[in-house]
Amino acid sequence: MQGDRVQRVFVIVLILNVAVAVVKAVFGVMAGSVSMVADALHSGFDSFSNVVGIVAMHLAGKPPDPEHPYGHGKIETLGTLVIGAMLLLTAAGILLEGYGRLITPVTPEITPITVGVMVGTLITNIIVSTYERRKGEEYQSQILIADSLHTRSDVFVSTAVLGGFLAIRLGYPAADPIIALGIGLLIARMGVGILYGAAEVLIDSMNLPCDPALVRAVVMDTPGVAGYHDFRCRGKPGEIFADIHVTVDPALSIARAHAISEEVEQRLKETVPGLAEVVVHIEPDDSA
């Protein structure tokens, strides 16, 4: 099942993120770098989003029941909201730290070990976030794509740290907090984007990959269909629910009209990506 594949990706990413946090912590302690140990704690906190994803996908994969006849798919969207909120918290922490360093300058510890570890973990996070994003797009998983952005926030943080190191070496220590403020604003923008996308799903927005031209082509190509109107869809990528009104010749028997509705439903499910269910309403064609 798709939910199981998404969970496996989360487990892999969780293991890698924990490994990155441990490496930063160990070398930070060895080098006596307080900033690197703090960054390790930040990376460890980021791993919590992977746990959120695993739990959300487990609950979202439960089958429909009498109290939830449409299934539990929107739990994935709730998990996406949590990850978006965590990104905003990360951004707030970076902005506060950058502001504090702007008011009270602090020179970070720069050693070959700290630079080497930061570069190594930066490369690892780039690989992990890219892998996670590609799998999210492949599985049409909103929460996996959101978590890839959360993982990418670590890339931006590491880049900011290295940029600060370079600025200090070049004799511009004031650039360090300014870089941090810029990165904080970028991560905040990412978090807002995730929250907006999740909210669009929860309020049943039509901003989904339901191509109107494709729907029209499929419906109107079905034998016996005279026309259609009021096509609506809602849900999330990979799990879209829709309904449509199809008009047929009023002289047709109920059995024939029902057969046409079933064929329209089957064709739409086979053609429209991510369409899980569509309700077809049959109406007489007024122009007949």
Describe the structure.
69% of the residues lie in helices and 10% in strands. It has 288 residues and is mainly alpha-helical. The protein folds into 2 domains: 2-202, Cation efflux protein transmembrane domain (Alpha-lytic protease prodomain-like, Up-down Bundle), CATH 1.20.1510; 212-284, 2-Layer Sandwich (Alpha-Beta Plaits). The model has no long low-confidence stretch (mean pLDDT 83).
Which keywords apply here?
Alpha-lytic protease prodomain-like, 69% helix, 288 residues, mainly alpha, 3-stranded mixed β-sheet, 8 helices, Alpha-Beta Plaits
The oligomeric status of these chains comes to single chain
Number of structurally distinct domains: 2
DSSP, total strands: 3
Second CATH tier, the architecture of the largest domain: Up-down Bundle
Would you tell me which CATH topology of the largest domain applies? Alpha-lytic protease prodomain-like
Structural class: mainly alpha
Radius of gyration: 25 Å
Biggest sheet statistics? 3 strands, mixed
Cross-sheet strand order for the largest sheet: 1-2-3
Could you state the order of secondary-structure elements as H and E?
A: HHHHHHHEEHE
What is this entry, summarized?
Helix content is 69%, strand content 10%.
Topology:
Elements: H1 2-31, H2 34-60, H3 74-103, H4 112-139, H5 142-169, H6 175-202, H7 212-220, E1 227-236, E2 239-248, H8 254-271, E3 275-284
Parallel strand pairs: 2-3
Antiparallel strand pairs: 1-2
Helix pairs in contact: 1-2, 1-4, 2-3, 2-5, 3-5, 3-6, 4-5, 5-6, 7-8
